[in-house]
Amino acid sequence: MSCQELIPTSNIVILFVTSCVLVLLTNLISVICHLVCGHSKAFHSSVIGINCSDILCGLQLLVLLIKHSMFGGTFKVEVNKWRSETTCFTLFGMFLCFAALSLTLSFFLALSRLMIVLQPVDTEFKRVIYIQKWLGLIFTTVTISIFVLSLSVQQVWKQLPTNLCFPHVDPTNTLLVSKIIAACLGLCYFITPVIICILHILLLKKIIESQQNVIKSIKHSNVPMISQLVTTTLSHFICWYAAHSVYLTLIFLDSYDLGILYWVTGAVLPLNSVVSPVVFIASVLRNKGK
Questions:
Q1: What confidence category does residue 212 fall into, taking pLDDT thresholds of 50, 70 and 90?
Q2: Do 178 and 161 meet the contact criterion of CB atoms below 8 Å apart?
Q3: Which CATH architecture best describes the domain 10-288?
């Protein structure tokens, strides 16, 4: 694979552009839909939080595309400068923010939905102020923590090991911190979807139990909810497991084709950031049509 440019082939450029547009467009539409049409302010606040974290995925691709265009054919002689730039370390932090926020907010949404069904009268998760307080705390804590970490890494490393500025991939196989980050991210990305899946199963079980005495057809009333939860859960598993299985595998390889990183970054990693907002948009439009 050529190292003449930041994004090495025209096919990968097209992939990055497509994924970037899809991620940004679907999430922005989802934010607008939930601001304008959202029937539950507490719920749509959580969804908007997830949309904002997913937008980070699109912004990463956008920054890489802009820098690719700026470097042009001179990237080969400026590769060390790029890996030392503040922009590259900013991408490092953006990836960690995206990872931490997507995991935390997806879990938070699944938990809040379950709590509303388990305690429909008493739960704090129905209160908009309560949800927004937690969202603010999550965003503030993650942003400050990642900013401090990124700044510290920049002072210590001086230069990142990959052109994509990933915190958890080290082709040189010499940075212990990179391996630790990869292991921690992999563990979180493998455990969180399982927890979310369990919460979704408990949610559906409780909904079905609560509707057993309702005259309205249970099967019909639960189909949209089941479809939404199954789709988002499968998206979590496919996207997160596939991407981070590759990243973890690369830790144990002495050498590998760097093209793998580009294809996973452009095709697999953004998948959940496109599927989730589409599911949320469909949910808003369906509720609006009732």
A1: low
A2: yes
A3: Up-down Bundle (1.20)
